[in-house]
Specification:
This protein is an alpha+beta fold and 336 residues long. It has twelve helices and 13 strands.
Length: 336
């Protein structure tokens, strides 16, 4: 099968995307497919047509790849693709919107406030900061609303540090999220589509993979450097957790997958609060990394799923999608 591997692009996560894409290409070639590397640019549609691609494997992180834009385009040209659809991507990429949906569904997520840059400038948000500080407490986590790989995240330990942290986050995005800090263990729960060898892959439910715990070395949190520098973090999989906590974390991940309408695969990041069994959902990643230090391949390996099998399963899920809308309910079928 001719598989276009979409990677690179223009986001700040371009280096990570290129690494994910290279890993995917190698696996596809080992599996007997023809991998077509495509660095996403303005000529994407022309490239896909010229390459006679039969399916797109999305390894494009961040802007375009995870916000639904690329997915909308691929649906417009009727090319099957891996991962979640436009709606799920748009909801998950915006951490503030996702947290509002989690709260509405009665699911646990740290207390937060979110403001657009325009509101900060025009509505006098600065005057409300003392009340926000009292509500959330210090240290306070400041995040760009729509960035991945922990880019732009700052910890404000006092009121004096908060304005600079907000300005720093706004350098990455035009909307900022202020979130209560949860001191505890950083967990990631990947969700994966059923094997294509299932009797009916369209009806079989997704599965939650073994939980990964990320323990950064010399960092306050699981930062960008901790994620992509080999040895910068200790990764434990399966995480050493009480059985009820493991079951609850996997249940929450599956509920997130369903709530946001994810497809194929995703990764749900959460915190286990120190001194309790309380879990708090941080975010849902619709295009998890597939690099040599990424968490999804590690979780799959712990479940007895090799990297090649993981890629094959993700690829197969591109053809088990049910298109959005009542008039587009028929699933896509493989070309060729």
């Amino acid at each position: 099968m001719r598989v276009a591997v979409l990677k690179g692009g223009r986001s700040l996560e371009r280096p990570v995307s290129l690494r994910s894409g290279a890993q995917v290409e190698d696996a596809l070639e080992r599996l007997g497919h023809e991998a077509l590397p495509v660095d996403v640019r303005a000529d994407l549609v022309e490239r896909l047509e010229a390459e006679r691609a039969e399916v797109a494997f999305i390894a494009l992180h961040g802007r375009d790849g995870e916000d639904g834009a690329l997915q909308e385009l691929l649906e417009a040209i009727e090319l099957p693709y891996t991962g979640s659809g436009p709606g799920a991507c748009a909801r998950c990429i915006d951490k503030a919107l996702a947290k509002h949906e989690l709260r509405a569904a009665g699911m646990p997520t740290p207390d937060f406030f979110a403001f657009k840059e325009a509101a900060i400038e025009e509505l006098g948000v600065a005057a409300a900061l003392p009340r926000i500080e009292r509500a959330l407490g210090f240290p306070l986590v400041v995040k760009p609303a729509s960035q991945g790989s922990a880019l732009g995240i700052k910890f404000a330990h006092s009121d004096a540090e908060l304005p600079a942290a907000i300005v720093g986050a706004l350098a990455y995005d035009r909307k900022v999220l202020l979130e209560r800090h949860i001191k505890g263990r950083d967990l990631a729960v990947a969700v994966l589509a059923p094997s294509s060898r299932s009797l009916d892959a369209r009806q079989a439910p997704p599965i939650a993979l073994p939980i990964v715990e990320a323990i950064p070395r010399g960092e306050e949190f699981y930062s960008y450097d901790s994620r992509y520098e080999i040895g910068a973090a200790q990764l434990v999989c399966p995480a050493e957790l009480p059985v009820p906590v493991t079951a609850r974390a996997q249940e929450l991940a599956l509920r997130c997958f369903d709530l946001f309408g994810c497809h194929g695969y995703a990764r749900v990041d959460m915190m286990l609060q120190d001194g309790s069994d309380a879990l708090e959902i941080l975010e849902v990643n619709v295009v998890p990394g597939l690099t040599e230090t990424s968490l999804l391949p590690l979780a799959a390996d712990a479940a007895g799923i090799s990297f090649d099998e993981l890629i094959e399963r993700i690829l197969a899920s591109a053809f088990s999608r049910r298109s959005a809308g009542a008039l587009r309910a028929a699933p896509l079928t493989p070309a060729g």
